[in-house]
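Recap from last week: sequence in, structure out.
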Amino acid sequence: MRDSDDNPVTGGRWNSAAFRKAIVTFDDAPTPPGESPFVGGVEPRRDIAVVPYDAAWSTVFERLREEIVESLGFGALSVEHIGSTSVPGLAAKPVIDIDVTVADSAEEQAYAPALEKLGFHLIIREPWWYGHRMFRGDDPACNLHVWSVGSPEAVRHLIFRNWLRHNPEDRNLYIAVKQEAAKYTTAEGGLVSEYNQRKQDAIRSIYARAFAAAGLTEMESE
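Predicted structure tokens:
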């Protein structure tokens, strides 16, 4: 099993117009009233440290992927290294992000017990947002995201990763944005969610260029 990097931008092709539209449409709806994404009283993280790229991150991912595939078997439809640690040369928080695609993320019994045996703990459940689940691993530090097959968010992650791998200008832009966001969020004692919010405008502009290059949208003239 390899990363889906056969195409420098998309890592694949999509033939459905509806699916293509879903990929380029972000769901920014707030958490439904009375709901919380956090499981078991877990608190949002405040530790925000952006460090230079470490080539060892890819090795750590490969080890984790082997363990996940062995544990989930054919239930793991794909296991991808995503996020900043998956992009050579990109500064990042030293936490490995992994996307695992399964048949149906709502069927937690099909994968959660196996992941828990590997040391991962379910900390986020968002059935209202693409059926997202997130497990945390502590040694090594890892965020493991679970999606149902066909999730547009998982596809977006691959587009973003592959684009940054092949476009140094946007990679350098993103480094600067991440460092500034970390600096100000840490100074204010803010949460990781606030750090992410500070990056959002830059991320969306990078996505716009990646979507256009993938043929998913047309790039508007500036």
